[in-house]
Amino acid sequence: MGAAAVFASGMKSIGLTGALVDAMKGSQSIAMVSAAIGPWLMAIVCGSGNAAALAFNEVITPHAADFGMTVVQLGAVAQVAAGLGRTISPVAGGVIVIASIAGVNPIDICKRTFIPVCVALVVFTIGMYFF
Fold first, then answer.
1. Residue 74 exposed, middle or buried by CB count within 10 Å (0-12, 13-18, 19+)
2. In this structure, what DSSP letter does residue 39 have?
3. pTM of the model
4. Residue 17, pLDDT score
5. Rounded CA gap, 114 and 131, in Å?
6. Complete DSSP assignment for 7-60
7. Which residues contact 34 (CB under 8 A, 6 or more apart)?
8. CA–CA distance, 108 with 20 (Å, rounded to integer)
9. Are 110 and 102 in contact (CB under 8 A)?
């Protein structure tokens, strides 16, 4: 959780949080896409779904009503998106362990799971917002 707090503080200090909130307030579509893509990309880069989701949910999700959404919608999409991002991160601990057990490169696992993860992200995001 420390990494998430540092990341969230960094986002605030460089003004990224304010810029994201303002952009998301301007368009509900941007907010919907940002809740899925932001934590997903952060998890891929850092290898931790928890840090990415906690950082997003700490900084952005409290503003859900400003974007025309509920905290549950925004928070759930961010949490699942971060978890899916972690599964295709070559620096995620689980991917590294499985790759070593299987005797393959972590990048190969990530390549193989990329398309199913993207499909899952799109389906879950649509389901959370529209059904």
1. buried
2. H
3. 0.87
4. 80
5. 25
6. HHHHHHHTTHHHHHHHHHHH-HHHHHHHHHHHHHHHHHHHS-HHHHHHHHHHHT
7. 20, 23, 24, 60
8. 33
9. no
